[in-house]
TrEMBL record:
It comes from Mikania micrantha. SUPFAM superfamilies: Clavaminate synthase-like (SSF51197). GO terms for molecular function: metal ion binding. This is Fe2OG dioxygenase domain-containing protein. It holds the Pfam family 2OG-FeII_Oxy. InterPro entries: IPNS-like_FE2OG_OXY, IPNS-like_sf, Oxoglu/Fe-dep_dioxygenase_dom, Plant_2OG-oxidoreductases. Keywords: Iron, Metal-binding.
Amino acid sequence: MVERLQGDEGDEMTILPLIETNEQYAQNLIPVADKLLGWLSRGLGLEDGEMKQGLGGEDLTYMLKINYYPPCPCPDLALGVAPHTDMSAITILVPNEVQGLQVFKDDHWYDVAYIPNALIIHIGDQVQILSNGKYKSVYHRTTVNKDKTRMSWPMFLEPPLEFEVGPIPKLISQDNPPKYKTKKFKDYVYCKLNKLSQ
């Protein structure tokens, strides 16, 4: 299901072309997401559909967001988005040509290079949980630019709010006990947003 957030009454007439374009874009990403989840499943020695089933199967939610970062006169004093991991399962991101995404590895922030016509894929918290920590959620942030506007179009794949997510049973053994609790996605979101232990 692709969710559409509603604006104020009457807004639809002025933004209708944008809504239709973004909904078509979102629909085109669904097969890409299915392939990614299949590859992630195989990487764990599972069948193609097991990762998707562990996230809610055909009830997965696809949420498109549009990020707009205007030029900032003091980019060294501001961040576009503070460091975080995504609560989603995976994030499929289309950036514009203005650099701004950074990932954290080995105690250092690295710029993610812009490659024309390429998608950026982030592993999110839910895939880390499903894989029992084999796949790691990407710790990242965004910076701003002094002279140019930066935009990005992330699509977040999320389980339904009432769906319970936990390590896939086939990945659990005596030698590899569960590292995460199984809980409803809405409870995970609540804990993360309120900085409560999981």
